[in-house]
Specification:
heterodimer, A: mainly alpha, globular, B: alpha+beta, 5-stranded antiparallel beta sheet, 4 helices, elongated
Chain lengths: ~375, ~160
């Protein structure tokens, strides 16, 4: 328990530092976990309590993703979501999977590494778009839709990975049953839900917590993945009053998710036989692969390589979803690889996102100078 | 007047975006972000990089008042609200700083409603608001009064009560 408190305190300090430097906190939480845990000083160990907190972190992360997942919006803008999304999926998943396989991972492991390699961090990307005042860029909207597409792919990946060792027919019947119950409750209980959320006592926050936990344990009872069910719960609740649910679930997510990152770091074990040259190659490819997909998306949607560069600069960071895949399905070696990839890409990604305008200006002013030489009167 | 192009868009995870393209071809975009701040971008026609300002909701509301042309002086604000359903009723709300001439006098002494028709609905004193002050309420130096009425009544109030 003392270790747990130490971890909590270290995270508080790190959160302050990262806010002050305006860089994402996720890599620091993982590094803190690594330093305090098995691979480092060995002060903090995972136990029942920390495991509970980590599980809660993952469940609330996915519940939030469900709340943001407004399917009708995707259906309203299919071309926007699909073009960029499909390019990202083919290029990044393709490169990630192939590289992992060639570097000696098994097919199944390569699939998990490829998925973690592909999925960017919605949290880091959106925050940096807002903080770097880039929302008006035409590329910003493209980036946001690509992250939405990635969320949907993640749901499919989670479904595929959890279905692989089950009786498929029974599995889907159970999922359909659970989905039906969740949607029926939020459809016919809409007025009740809204009346609960409007109260100004402790009931709304208690209700949100209970609803998420009940859904997760109901899923466990049925033998279906609780990850999918809490996303579905979020998506169903999003049809009532998503802002209120976000407000009530935010404190849980914020605290538990930090614990989730730290104890992911704590669980990292360098003695698991990780090959560091493989890790370095994956990290470099993780940055290069986004350059290729970013360029292709920029050319396909905005007809400009410069836009591609901007998309790349903002979409390098991997984060919470990659770690979620590592925690759920990764072996110790995979977890170490993904941890390194998240740390490297999120730190580099935060700098490229911050300074991409300089990069762009440099390229533009050089090409402008060239243009001026051709048309001396077109300046000014 | 040509209809200006106003687009509004809900961006998942970010918030709501409003974009206006002006007659002259400049673009203004406003984002109400989930973090609670409001970001305003302006992009001059022919330019590549917009400039941005980040505002708190209070600052944004102030800017909104300036843009609707309601602010008369920097510290004295006025807002006119039109109720189109009530025979185009126009109500003005105006803030005034109390001049020396009326400090120590009560609302009753000044016969504000009888003389001007306007009503004092709130007084701000030392950063505290006194809502709906009674007739016996007496003004102090430094008070700011919030007055409501039709624009003629407000003008009369300014002429007859707010005399230095």
């Amino acid at each position: 328990m003392e270790g747990f408190i130490i971890a909590l305190f270290v995270c508080l300090v790190l959160a302050l530092i990262s806010k002050y430097l305006s860089i994402p906190a996720i890599p620091f939480y993982i590094i803190a976990g690594v330093v305090l845990g098995k691979a480092g000083l060995g002060i903090v160990h995972s136990d029942e309590v920390s495991r509970f907190f980590s599980d809660m972190g993952l469940i609330f992360l996915l519940f939030f993703m469900g709340l943001e997942l407004k399917l009708e919006r995707i259906i309203a803008n299919p071309s926007k979501v699909l073009t960029g999304g499909l390019i990202g999926l083919t290029v990044d998943m393709g490169i990630g999977f192939t590289a992992a396989y060639l570097l000696g991972f098994t097919l199944m492991e390569s699939f998990i590494v490829g998925a973690a390699f592909y999925i960017t961090s919605t949290a880091i990307i959106i925050t940096s778009l807002i903080e770097n005042r880039k929302l008006m860029m035409k590329e910003a909207e493209t980036i946001i839709w690509v992250t939405v597409f990635e969320d949907i792919v993640l749901i499919i990946i989670l479904a595929v990975l959890s279905a692989s060792d089950q009786n498929l027919f029974l599995f889907f019947v159970k999922i359909a049953l659970a989905l039906g119950i969740i949607y029926a409750l939020s459809l016919y209980g809409k007025e009740f839900l809204v009346s609960i959320l409007e109260r100004d006592d402790e009931i709304p926050i208690l209700f949100t917590f209970a609803a998420v936990l009940t859904t997760a344990s109901f899923a466990l009872f049925l033998g279906i993945p609780e990850t999918l069910m809490v996303i579905a719960l979020g998506a169903a609740f999003a049809t009532t009053d998503p802002d209120a649910f976000e407000q009530h679930a935010r404190p849980f997510r914020d605290v538990f998710l930090v614990m989730f990152f730290v104890f992911f770091g704590v669980s990292i074990d360098f003695a698991s036989g990780v090959n560091w040259s493989v890790v370095v190659i994956i990290c470099i490819l993780a940055i290069l692969s986004k350059l290729i997909s970013g360029m292709l998306i920029g050319l396909a949607i905005h007809g400009s390589a410069l836009s591609g560069l901007e998309i790349w600069a903002n979409m390098i960071s991997r984060g919470e979803f990659s770690i979620a895949l590592a925690v759920l399905y990764g072996s110790p070696v995979i977890a170490t690889t993904i941890a390194a990839m998240v740390i490297v890409t999120s730190i580099i990604g935060s700098f490229t996102a911050k300074y991409s305008t300089w990069l762009r200006k440099g390229i533009v002013s050089r090409s402008r100078k060239k243009a001026l030489l051709y048309h001396p009167h077109s300046g000014k | 007047m040509s209809a200006m192009a106003l687009r509004s868009l809900n961006l998942p995870g970010v918030g709501t975006k409003y974009e206006i393209e002006t007659d002259k071809g400049d673009t203004i975009a406003i984002f109400f972000t989930k973090t609670g701040t409001i970001q305003m971008y302006t992009l001059q026609k022919g330019c590549q990089t917009p400039s941005a300002a980040v505002m708190t909701p209070i600052e944004a509301r102030r800017l909104g008042n300036i843009l609707t042309g309601a602010i008369i002086e920097a510290d004295q604000e006025s807002v006119e609200i039109a109720f189109s359903a009530l025979a185009d009723l126009r109500i003005t709300i105006h803030t005034f700083f109390v001049p020396k001439s009326i400090t120590g006098k009560t609302i009753e002494d000044l016969q504000i409603r009888a003389k001007t028709g306007a009503t004092i609905i709130a007084v701000c004193r030392h950063d505290k608001n006194i809502i709906n002050p009674p007739p016996t309420f007496s003004f102090e130096a430094g008070d700011a009064a919030l007055v409501i009425g039709e624009s003629d009544q407000i003008k009369k109030f300014e002429r007859e009560i707010m005399v230095e």
